[in-house]
Amino acid sequence: MNLSTATSHLRSEDINVWFGERHVLADVNLDFPSNQVTALIGPSGCGKSTFLRTLNRMHELIPSAGLAGSVLLDGQDIYGDGVNPVDVRIKIGMVFQKPNPFPTMSIKENILSGLKLSGRKFVNGDDIVETSLRRASIWNEVKDRLGEPAISLSGGQQQRLCIARSLAMEPEVLLMDEPCSALDPGSTRRIEETIEELSEAMTIVIVTHNMQQAQRVSHQTAFFLAEDGNPGTVVEFGSTDDVFNRPVDARTNDYVNGHFG
Amino acid sequence: MAAEQTKSGSTPQRRTLTVKPTLLGDKVFFGITSFTAYFSIALVGLVLVFLLIRAWPALQHEGINFLIGSTWDDSVQPMVMQIFPMLWGSILLALLGVLLAVPMAIALAYLIEFLAPKPIARVATLLVDLLAALPSVVIGLWGLFVFTPVAEGWSELLHKTLGWLPFFANETGNFSRSPFIAGWIVAVMIVPIITSVTREIFSQMDRDLINAAKALGGGMASTLTRVILPTASGGIVGGTLLGLGRALGETVAIFFVLNLSFDINWFDVSEARGGSIASMILSKLGEATDYEISGLMAAGVVLFVSTLIINFIAGYIVNRAQPWRK
Ligand SMILES: Nc1ncnc2c1ncn2[C@@H]1O[C@H](COP(=O)(O)OP(=O)(O)OP(=O)(O)O)[C@@H](O)[C@H]1O
Ligand SMILES: [Mg+2]
After folding, report:
1. I need a surface site. Which of A58, B84, B132, B183 has the fewest CB within 10 A?
2. Are strands A10-19 and A22-32 parallel, antiparallel or unpaired?
3. Which residue(s) pair with A40 in the sheet?
């Protein structure tokens, strides 16, 4: 199997989000260049997860969800007429905050689950399993127990398994919502290393509450903020180095230095 | 100081640890709950003992033939009582009922839990619960006067199109009072319990699993068959067997819609010959002699034990099917 090196360019244009009548995100314009890791930071409730979900059309699965604006993948609007959300989600993978392997499936079946769920034909399942697990740097830990239930793994291993599960789909973009928040420092470090390796082959967007993590893994950072009752907006967006060391906005400065939030 | 060294130099004695209640209120509560629990177990045992005592004459006389023989003849002395056709009939009805009810219940639960807008879901839930509350004699009357004429048509159609299958063969041309119709009635009676158990399990399901399936490109159907159903299967089987327990014991409704016959009907579901232990007891009880009543009690024991076995299997499957639940 050849690793996909084709990467793509993702871009949000004037993304606005409502839940029912409540306006929770306003005019988010962000650019996610190929092979770059972008960190989304900001206080709790400012809309980071919500924004992330608009990027692979998971947002619309929430019953009261409303949306305006567009998301372009290689210049094509993923919300455009005739675009199948399933195809979007295949190209833009997602890793959740809490590890969520399928409990009824073995480690191996979990890796192949996306291919089966989306009804894609594949040969050499074993190769796909090995390659995906290697890319998520968990192969050595599980190679002798591929048939065991996925939930027999530790939390950190489960999370890397979930990353591997997304990678089996060969996504062009990988979205990660606080992937390390439930994990110990050791597992966190391994996932950060994995992210770095993966960025050579894909575009990555990661939400994190950990400022050090944002600085360690990301090339660029967007700071979200929702001020008293107003919808969340991007206050500052730039290279990670700039956002953390030379922030333009005073609120960014306060946040990255731990003065609020 | 070495970490493994204890203060006294030797391993201290083991303490006895208990969780006995200490407060007066707790003691009273503990007493009442344990009494109730043991009492209900004792009650089940007593019912079984009572049935066995009354059933003994018939059981002793017939021996194992009571279970595996197929004759019920009151023209001889002492009369012959063997219930296999009724036992098999009960099993056949249960199988048919489950076959028809499970897909309906899953579809209903899925609709209520995942698809329907809130108000519709609420109305649907209400209707299903209402169905569970209908007395079985009402269902029986409905089955006899309303449903039978309709189902006869279905049965005839199945015979015409799929009559080459042994199940739908029909030599008499009579399609009423058949296991096919009774199976539908059983299904109607167990759909509510299976639906509500399934719905409960769907609603407790980790939404992250469903989201993960969607995020991996899963469609509605593939998410249901590959993720939701396997995860919920243990509970669904449990609910189904609970319903089955009810179906096996169902008496009146089946009595109305099924022709009881001691001529074994293995699987010709559209023929007007069938069996059901519970309905058989009902039909014979009115003019039974003492000895015959003993036979009916023995049939009751068989019913009782089959229900216990089913519940036992239910517990086993529910545990086995969800190894990740402890
Ligand atoms: N399913 C939903 N229904 C209604 N409102 C929602 C829903 N999900 C999120 N919200 C609201 O949208 C806003 C943004 O939530 P979101 O989860 O995106 O924040 P977040 O930045 O990810 O926070 P955290 O850092 O705590 O994860 C919040 O005010 C939240 O209450
Ligand atoms: Mg969040």
Report:
1. B132
2. antiparallel
3. A207, A222
CA distance A212 to A200: 21
Q: Which residue from B216, B219, B324 is facing A113, i.e. has the nearest CB?
A: B216
Q: Which chain A residues are closer than 8 Å to B213 by Cβ?
A: 102, 113, 117
Inter-chain CB pairs, A–B, below 8 Å: 79
| One pLDDT digit (tens) per residue for chain A, 261 residues | 334 444 458 999 999 999 999 999 999 999 999 999 999 999 999 999 999 999 999 999 998 999 999 999 998 999 999 999 999 999 999 999 999 999 999 999 999 999 999 999 999 999 999 999 998 989 999 999 999 999 999 998 999 999 999 999 999 999 999 999 888 888 899 889 999 999 999 999 999 999 999 999 999 999 999 988 899 999 999 999 999 999 999 999 999 988 764
User: Largest Cα–Cα distance of chain A, in whole Å?
Assistant: 54
Choose from B118, B216, B222 for mutation: most chain A CBs within 10 A. Answer: B216
Would you say B317 and B77 are in contact if contact means Cβ atoms under 8 Å apart? no
Number of domains comprising chain A:
1
Partners of A54 on chain B (C-beta within 8 Å) are: none
Structural domain range at position A80? 6-103+173-256
CA gap A93, A170 in Å, rounded: 8
CB of A115 within 6 A of ligand 1: the answer is no
Query: CA angle, B33 as apex, B29 and B35 as ends, to 5°?
Result: 115
Q: What is the B174 CA–ligand 1 centroid distance (Å)?
A: 63
Give the number of other CB atoms < 10 A from CB of residue A81. Answer: 5
* Numbered residues of chain B with Cβ closer than 8 Å to any chain A Cβ: 206, 208-209, 211-219, 222-223, 226-227, 230-231, 233, 323-324
Give the one of A87, A94, A119 whose C-beta lies nearest to B215's C-beta. A94
On whether residue A245 sits in a domain, the answer given is yes
Residue A218 lies in a domain: yes
What lies within 8 Å, CB to CB, of A81 at 6+ separation is none
Which of A17, A18, A19, A234 has the most ligand 1 atoms within 8 A of CB, as the residue to mutate? A19
ipTM of the complex: 0.89
- A222: domain CATH number is 3.40.50.300
List, in order of start, the domains of chain B with CATH numbers: 68-325 (1.10.3720.10)
